[in-house]
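Structure ticket #2291
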Amino acid sequence: MKRIPLLVVAVLLLSIPTPAFASLQQESIYDLLVDRYFNQTSNNDIDVNTQDPQAFAGGDFLGIRDRLAHIQDMGFTYISIGPIFETEKYDGSEISSYSSIESRYGTEEEFVDLLDELHAKDMKLMIDLPIGDATPENLQEMQAFVERFPIDGVKLTNIPATITPEVEQFVAAINTDERDVISLEETDLELDANYSSDTTTAFQQAFKTVDQPMSGLINFTESDILTLDTLVTERFTYFSTEENMFPPTRIMVAMGALLTLPGVPVMTYGTEIAMNGDSQESSHQIMNFRVDEDIMLFIEDLQTIRNQSEALQRGDFELLQEEDGYLVFKRSTENEAFIVVINNTSGTKTFAASEEIVGVDKELRGLFGRDVVRQADNGEYRLTIDRELVELYHVKENSGLNTAYIIAMAIAYALFLGFIYLVWRKGKQKRAQQN
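Resolution: structure written out below.
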């Protein structure tokens, strides 16, 4: 997919009203494990063995700070870093203290520095709270922990099948106006966003290959959590490779839907490099930063628009067309509108948008294909998209002739004529000197 030109992005951002709201729905979450992200210092490397998938790999808070630009450049506003309590396993699944930070990840001062760095960049941080085996005393320790640090959100994990009054009271106590509480597990607890494994499965089935039904993607609300996979499922790449498909293309099309449909998008670390795995051992790989950047650049371009757009974050959703592999919908508020086309089919598709959908005498500016679609004599706006592509059309007032383009062409033509004149003049002078 082509990158959005910087000039197009700049003009578009100027024309989009800055969102005046503040909620989890305007965020996008990058979900990682501290130990698997980046090892910045060896000072806290205890029992590190990068060749053993069950051992600690050395990732730390300093590593997240060191590679924070990687996440920020892709436009993610929230980082979920997993459990950080003192633990016997790299993934925090065997906690030995609910009040102390795991020393392999760093010190309390380094954790606070990470929080301060994120907040200085207008980003937020979320940690895991494993509550499955926690006693009432452990719950009190975790509550005291999140109240001691300016943590922006928590992700509940290992949620017990039977919710006790103590757990309900704990969740109510930590779920304040200043703190988001979610889970990537199904639960009856009242949280700030809802997760369903059916949602993850719907994305995996729809985008693992082409020409697949997308009916499972059309009924999301802004409180739904959208994921291609999680830290406890098979990687999305696993499903596309099983279909002998090219993972980067599959991921870009899927992320195009994930970041434009209603809901709270959560992306597992490594998705941007097509990390593969069908088990915890294989999917909790150490992050590799030396990879092809196509997926990262696509996500960056898309999020540049999403992060400024109330319509894409929590605007109204109107389904325009859905068939095998082809999804067209409108996201809109009173101030802005986008027509989103997801062509996950094996062929070129055309959608005729009526003036009832778009409006009279508008123009649709494609952000990736850079085309401008205007109303035809029959009142329709015809949108043609090649296979396995995503396009966002920004609905704007008809500007008529493309003045900027005409001026640019005129300047280019004048420069060309000037160049021809200089070559002719230099040749004439040279002939005169020879005579």
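Closing remark: The chain has three domains: 20-314, 316-397, 410-435.
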